[in-house]
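Human: If only I could read backbone structure tokens as easily as an amino acid sequence. Underneath my words sits a plain record pairing an amino acid chain with its backbone structure tokens. Take your time, and here it is.
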Amino acid sequence: MAPKNTICLWYERDALAAADFYAKTFPDSKVGNTMRAPGNYPDGKQGDILTVEFTVAGIPCVGLNGGPHFKQSEAFSFQIATDDQAETDRLWNAIVNNGGQESECGWCKDKWGVSWQITPRVLTDAVSGPDRAAAKRAFDAMMTMKKIDVAAIEAAVRG
């Protein structure tokens, strides 16, 4: 049974390649069914892959090969919580080293333009914790980073 709510991501023509990458990279991720276009459409022809169902970290998605009309933006991102520096490094490096690009404060973008927040739990816990001075120190440390440095966040929390 299809989920009641599914995130739909627009790709120019590489939805299956993106879904395969996500399935290889993120835990609890997989590629599902593909639907081929039953007829010609403005940016494709009958038989082309039109949609790909996939799951990213347990979230159901569909990739739509819709052509060059719309681009991804930071207005939408996947936020992936990581447990330690090794997991943070693995996910960040997988995205960036596969044609992606670094941004600020734990954000990066994959080669299809989809934005990702690779966010260690220690950062989220620090900035939302009851110690507001520690939260500010952790936040200030994060603001200087591209990929989040767990040890630096922990040091900031300690003061």
Q: What stands out?
A: The chain has two domains: 1-69, 72-159. The helical segments are 15-25, 85-96, 121-128, 132-142, 150-158.
